[in-house]
Amino acid sequence: MTSTLVRRHRPRPSSSWTTDAHARTRDWAEIQERMLVPLYEAVYERLDVGAGTRLLGLGCGSGLALLIAAARGAAVCGVDTDERRLDLARERLTAADTPDDRARPARLGLGGPESPCVREATADAAFTVVTAFEPLSALGAGSPGATVSDAASTLAAAAAGTERGGVVVLAGWGPPERCATSGVLRVGARLADPMCAPGREVPAPARWRLCGRDDLEELAARAGLRPDGSGRVACPFGYADMDSAVRGLLSTGLFDAAERATDPIQVRKEITEALHPHQRADGTVWMPNVFRYLICRI
Q: What ranges make up the beta strands (E) of the chain?
């Protein structure tokens, strides 16, 4: 088990999104976000991201993918709808800057392609790469009242600021039979069902769902993008202990709707039960997963 996926964290109770959003954001940055590092690195390697690359990260979260791209020499810009995660991204990218850096400082902004930081970046030069590593959630398709068409519109707006011949990358979960975490995430989807909470009104929140075989292609087509290759990457989810696993998974936001529909204690209990088959004798939790990415040309 690699040290990049499993680290020891100070034990503490898993926080509810309703009581400690800052702790939940920290759990994302310190525990969960690194699980997709193999995906980021595989995409950057395939596209030869480096000096001369001008990259826009949609749904950049707390900035780990941007940090990796910047370390390869790319000029990066990122947008996200979560201001707390953006604050952490600013901390990370500011700490990584040195007086000797030749690339421009990272630009970060709240929202999407309409953010002022994106306009500032494209005023210098068009982007060469746009990434949407979690398109159906980061682009708003899972938000209340939003649709896949909304995500496609966001992608189309981002593509408008990309130079001809540039690349847009979409990514998502691979086949459910190759994603051990899918069984745990189904817990959140089941508990979020209004039928699980009689008498309670449950809004239409962002929920995890199985990624269909052609979902990324459909999203690309709606955005007017032309697919030009794809790939699969192993992204195992590894945790130092059960507490870290529960905290990491809760930090994704995929169980927020379940907590609203039932209660945080019940959600944590059922996540723990679903994780037990994946806990090893030494207490660590390990779940093999496969993620898929789609490369599109402008």
A: 54-58, 75-80, 107-110, 127-132, 162-173, 226-234, 237-239, 285-287, 290-297
User: Rounded to whole angstroms, how far apart are CA atoms 96 and 26?
Assistant: 18
Distance from C-alpha of 230 to C-alpha of 131, rounded to nearest angstrom: 14
The yes-or-no verdict on residue 47 having pLDDT over 60 is yes
184-207 pLDDT, tens per residue?
999 998 998 755 444 444 343 444
Collapse the DSSP code of 281 into the 3-class scheme (helix H, G, I; strand E, B; otherwise coil) and give the result: coil
Classify residue 68 as exposed, middle or buried by CB count within 10 Å of its CB (0-12, 13-18, 19+). middle
The Cα 291–Cα 285 span in angstroms is 19
- 0.70 exceeded by pTM: yes
Name the residue among 147, 146, 77, 145 with its Cα closest to residue 112: 77
**Single-letter amino acid code for the residue at 248:** G
Residue 209: both structure tokens together: 């769902």
